[in-house]
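Folding Problem: From Residues to Backbone Shape
Fields: amino acid sequence; protein backbone structure tokens
RECORD BEGINS BELOW THIS LINE
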Amino acid sequence: MKDVRITVRFPAELRRRLKEAAHRSNRRESDLIRGAVEKELAADENVPTAYELAEKAGIIGIVRSAPRDLSTNRKYFDGFGKS
């Protein structure tokens, strides 16, 4: 697959820091940017869902006397949220 070029604007101070970091590490600016974007996207992929957090906290299925389909059957939602 062919690489795609994109344009990104940086404030002057951030660009200065990027150039210095590239010089110190003997790497290209584009390599540093690519690595930072990859790291950010990987972090987003590792964020647990609300369900996973609730399951880990042990609060999934703690209501014992309710119908098993309470959270999925629409008939239980009639009037929900209305005073």
